[in-house]
Write a structure and sequence with these properties.
This protein is an alpha+beta fold. Strands 1, 2, 5, 6, 8 and 11 form a 6-stranded mixed beta sheet that branches. A 5-stranded antiparallel beta sheet has the order 4-3-7-13-12, with no helix packed on it. A hairpin with a 2-residue loop joins strand 3 and strand 4. The radius of gyration is 17 Å and the shape is globular. It comes from Halomonas flagellata. Pfam families: DUF1007. This is DUF1007 family protein.
Length: 207
């Protein structure tokens, strides 16, 4: 899964690129969770390749039009894979809707994909802990929350519309999974779901 344009392999082990994630949980006026507002910043190398390719296609409307086309491509590629997002409440998967609001921009020399992922139905939270993971099932691309020196930034996980406590748990893959990932080269495909074991977990508890 390469999101949009081709992503050349940088090394002979997974992952071959990464995404810096910011997550905002959106609650409605009744205090129900209704959507996940996500921002994905692509790694510098992928961004450089994409921006150079789009810059060379000026006859097709320039960079802005190219980014718009890339947004459609990314959205369409992610849709069959649940937008790389898994949401659980009390261990049960929460159904998600379809992304219709999204944009792609260039910010600080990096490509950023911003989108609103609605829930299939608004979700009532009454003290339970909601957990999510955002990951590429193949682990070709690693997804990590925005951080400063290895510590998640304050704006990496925020809540709008309710008072909640939040936390981001680091990934803790067992040695067997680490070995499995390290043995994959650029031509290999991982077993479906490998990325789950390397994903951080966001936790949100609303009293």
């Amino acid at each position: 899964m390469t999101l949009g344009l081709s992503l050349p392999g940088l090394a002979q082990a997974h992952p071959h690129g990464w995404i810096d994630l910011r997550m905002r949980l959106m609650f409605d006026d009744e205090g129900r969770l209704e959507a996940l507002y996500q921002s994905w910043r692509m790694d510098p190398f992928y961004s450089l390749v994409v921006l150079e390719e789009l810059g060379q296609a000026e006859g097709e409307g320039g960079l802005e039009a190219g980014l718009d086309r890339l947004g459609v491509e990314i959205r369409d590629n992610l849709a069959p894979q649940g937008y790389f997002t898994e949401l659980r409440l009390d261990g049960e998967v929460v159904a998600l809707g379809e992304v219709n609001e999204y944009t792609v921009m260039e910010r600080g020399g990096r490509v950023e994909f911003v989108f609103l992922l609605p829930l299939a139905e608004p979700l009532v939270l009454g003290g339970e802990t909601l957990r999510y993971q955002v990951f590429d099932p193949s682990y070709y691309i690693e997804v990590v929350h925005e951080d400063d020196d290895g510590t998640p930034r304050d704006d990496a996980l925020v809540v709008s519309g309710r008072e909640c406590t939040t936390g981001i748990l680091p990934a803790d893959p067992d040695p067997e999974r680490v070995m499995e990932a390290s043995m994959l080269d650029v031509t290999d495909e991982a077993e479906p779901g490998l990325g789950r074991y390397f994903a951080e977990t966001g936790e949100v508890t609303c009293g």
